[in-house]
Amino acid sequence: MSEKIVSFVEKECSKVLSSDTIEKIKDCLNNCKASSNTSNETQNNSNGVYSKIPKYVYKLMSLSSEKDLCRIIEIICTNKFHCSTFSEMNDPMEGVYVHKKYDETQKSLYSDKNKYKICSFSGLKGFENPAMWGYYANGFKGIAIEVIINDESNTNIENIEKVVYKNNVPKANLDSIKEILTTKLKAWEHEDEYRYIINSEDSKQYIGKINHVYIGCPYGNTTNYEDIIEKSESLKKYRKYKEILEKFLKLKKIKYKYCFVGGDNKVDTGKKCWKIT
After folding, report:
1. Sign for the pseudo-dihedral over CA of 194, 207, 1, 253
2. Where along the chain do its domains lie?
3. Residue 128: is its pLDDT beyond 90?
4. DSSP bridge partners of 101
């Protein structure tokens, strides 16, 4: 961990965060090298750019607690994202499929599914959907991390899958566990989901280079936002976490913008957000 980051954690974070959280941030940064993605960036992808995969995907995250801030700082420093097993996802029908009978093959398939780690992202349609910011970024009190996945230097693109949405639960395809884990019901189509999916025991994975961070600006398009924020403890707390994150992104030289609901009811971006003195 560099001296600049140590100084930032000790001076800036101490103004808002508890001493326990500051120590946790130091521990997670010491355990992961910030340069852990170097080998991935320099290798050449022999298959080139994938036409069905977008250049960017977006990871929406809440920024409403010290734990959230710690998690985001860790991601920014290490360029690694947390991955889950299918049973830890929020869809109760995750990994479910139709089969005639439950036998030893099905038991084996369940175990095989649990060997895969999954990290979910949204495409541009999901990013622009205000509801997604409501679900996954705590009502715009959160962020979206823009990750470059589709370029010739990223070998991990082979692990990126577009989620397919269907009207009915899919039938079992025993030859493709990935197909089962990347098929969802139509009710989830608004998420425009892309998944990084890999057979691995490691829950922290490099997926692509972080290109941009979009910071939620709740009520940023209203004329009385100052009154709203002054009367909301959760918004005032979010402002403190947001300001720490902004300083950290400047330290890491990562560009950021603010997001709010635009006139067309889609997520809009800008260079300014509300400020309370």
Report:
1. negative
2. 3-270
3. yes
4. none
